Amino acid sequence: MYGLAGQTESSWMKTLEAGCELFSPSTSRAISSPFTKNTPFWELQAKGEITPLDEEKESSLFVLTSAFLEEKGYIHYEVSNFASGQENLCKHKPELLETCSYLGLGPSAHFCQDGGSMVERSATMERYCHAPGTGQNACGGV
């Protein structure tokens, strides 16, 4: 989990390196700290015991995480998931996804309309953020 109060790029990199070295996971999920109402993080924040990182620092950790894990050979798919090969991609109830529409927002997110083909948003933050208003498509794994 990244975006924790007081976390630095250096401390997060040490965490990522240790996790990969000690566990060699076939899949990994990297999420930002959940400052959502009625969660322990929310309560600690409300008491003034912790402060979330600002959006710029948290975004920097997201990009750093993706670059680090991709350099280690992981495939970055969806927003926060990584797999060590195609065979390790998580299958999210495929029978459900084949028959319904769903929306995925953010870099590498997937979406589907009317039970059709799944579409992946751009995996790069730069292309995802700059596509709207330019006539470019924010979809595709480029």
Query: What is the terminal separation in angstroms?
Result: 25 Å
Structural class: alpha+beta
Q: From the alpha carbons, calculate the radius of gyration and give it in angstroms.
A: 17 Å
What percent strand? 5-15%
User: Could you list the spans in which at least 5 consecutive residues all have pLDDT below 50?
Assistant: none
Strand order of the largest sheet: 1-3-2
> Strand-and-helix sequence, N→C?
HEHHEEHEEH
Instruction: Compute the number of strand runs.
Output: 5
Verbal overview:
With about 140 residues, the protein is of the alpha+beta class. The chain has 2 domains: about 10-90, no CATH class; about 95-130, no CATH class. About 35% of the residues lie in helices and about 10% in strands. The chain has 5 helices and 5 strands. The strands form 2 sheets. A 3-stranded antiparallel sheet has the order 1-3-2. A two-stranded antiparallel ribbon has the order 4-5.
